[in-house]
DNA sequence: ATATCTAACTAACAATCGTTAGTTTTGAAT
DNA sequence: ATTCAAAACTAACGATTGTTAGTTAGATAT
């Protein structure tokens, strides 16, 4: 399983996008980090925008497909919520840098902006519907569903900020304590 | 209480920084939105960097001072946590755009970067110590304190994304249901 | 050895960036 | 009406941006 030069560039670009944001990263920054001249990058990629689009759409697709499977499953609401949490943890661990771009640089998409926004809206709508079912059958606390959605989603979306191989929260702790914290709170 | 031209520029800059990020906003963007030429801005401000620094340091100072008061108070852990939540809600409502810059553009600070990082670290350390006291006296669930800290802080930091005068979650709902959701979870 | 392909290179482009200098307009106080 | 300061303007600067064109080095296959 070797990474092509193009994949190498994409991984490095994601890392730099995370550190400084898409707009602040120049093609020369990426090239320098690869020990290469900026023009050489264009033997492998079409544009800077292609880098961003690849990173974001690829990751967003993972979320969309994962959520679809959860929605269609016959589980209880709390089981579905646990699976959503696991989905976020897994994708985050797989490549935290991609999630930074997804969260912070999506507005710099050009061709694919509308497509991305549709995916994101669909994801949130699925999440919301799961919460509302749980609210209706009493499985979930009687509080504003938007706030519960927001609270969970905020935490899950910024997981990449806290997960790190060194110095951060490790994967095992995340998988055991994160669901309980989100579902049962800090006090309970 | 009228706003000076300088304050007007800062407020508008914060709005644009929120929409596109610091690096992607040009002085000409800010000037256009004000119906003015870019060079005219320099009659009121020293640099683009001054705009960012003012926005971020001013807001970070509010958090630092608010947290200091909470830490020094003689309340229970859960009362302190409720006050932290209220602090975030109040500062967020006061100017959501400033919080976007604080969260997303702090890495573009130049002179004030170290000062900001110190403030942020101090804030997190105070938050952590409150959680640990609650853990020690049994007031808080026996789970990884880092995850509880992360979970609350992630939600509170991205409040600005959800609060909106129109179409979002309103201030009253936030103040009533947010503390319960964070402290007691979704199920409980 | 020759041909082919990949991936690097140099050089340059038009556009845009933050900012400065110097000048003119505006509006309120005298 | 005159004065004066605030705030706008025009013009331009050097630097940097993403990207293109054309070329060359190095490996692989024939």
Describe the fold and architecture.
The structure is a homodimer of 188-residue chains. By secondary structure, chain A is an all-alpha fold. The first copy, chain A, has 8 helices and no strands. In chain A, helix 4 runs antiparallel to helix 8 (171-184). The longest helix of chain A is centred in the N-terminal third of the chain and has 25 residues, at 48-72. Chain A is elongated and about 60 Å long. In chain A, 34% of the residues are buried. Chains A and B meet through helix 7 and helix 8 of A and helix 7 and helix 8 of B. The structure holds a DNA duplex (30 and 30 nucleotides).
Low-confidence runs of at least 5 consecutive residues of chain A: none
Distance between the termini of chain A: 45 Å
Q: What proportion of the residues of chain A form beta strands (DSSP E)? A: under 5%
Quaternary state, please?
Answer: homodimer
Shape of chain A: elongated
Radius of gyration of chain A: 18 Å
Considering DSSP H and I runs of 4 or more, what fraction of the residues of chain A is helical?
A: 55-70%
| Structure summary, number of beta strands of chain A | 0
User: Number of helical segments of chain A?
Assistant: 8
Q: What order do the SSEs of chain A take from the amino end to the carboxyl end, as H and E?
A: HHHHHHHH
What is the average per-residue confidence, as pLDDT of chain A, rounded to a whole number?
Answer: 95
Main sheet overview of chain A: none
Broad structural category of chain A? mainly alpha
Largest interface by Cβ-Cβ < 8 Å: A-B, 44 and 44 residues
